[in-house]
Amino acid sequence: MRTRKQLTPLGAVGAGLAAGAIGTVCMDTVRFLRQRRAGGEHNALRWEFAPVRSWQEAPDPGQVGKRLAEAFTLRELPDSAAFPISTFMHWAYGVGNAAGYGVVSASLRKPHVLHGLPFGALVWLSGYVVLPIAGLYRPIWTYDTKTLGDDLTAHLAYGVGTSSAFWLLSRVSVFSRQL
């Protein structure tokens, strides 16, 4: 008789966090390969951790992190904080979203790797809802289809990478218990 493994609640969050890191690598790989095909940086690590010298150069995750940190500390952050905060926020967003995915997926009767597609699409869409409110994006209807399509496919890679990693990690005994 085979026993079934079930994720513990903490295991679902832990597996989700780990899966989110893998999903973020998948998304960044898609983006890196696109920029490389266009003649950009050939070194993946140098591209991933490209220095951000000022807040004017900081990507959207960094801008959100700056606003959160400054609202909390009531102090203006120096330009030297742009790189570490931008990098941290990018990874924290990918990993953090996947913790929620882990909880939802672990509660499904039959979780499936393809659930990563709607998950990735939902993460993509949430950016086009939240970031315009923050003044960091324009409304979604003002972007051309190529920009939206490139961004969506990168997020779909994130979703499928996350769901695939979660599926594998959910079978690891450190995250689950025998029933």
UniProtKB/TrEMBL annotation:
Could you name the domain of life of the organism this protein comes from? Bacteria
Please list every transmembrane segment annotated in the UniProt record, as residue ranges. 81-104, 116-140, 152-169
Q: Which UniProt keywords apply?
A: Membrane, Transmembrane, Transmembrane helix
The reply on keyword Membrane is yes
Protein name, as recorded? DUF1440 domain-containing protein
- What's the source species for this entry? Kitasatospora nipponensis
Organism placement in taxonomy? Bacteria, Bacillati, Actinomycetota, Actinomycetes, Kitasatosporales
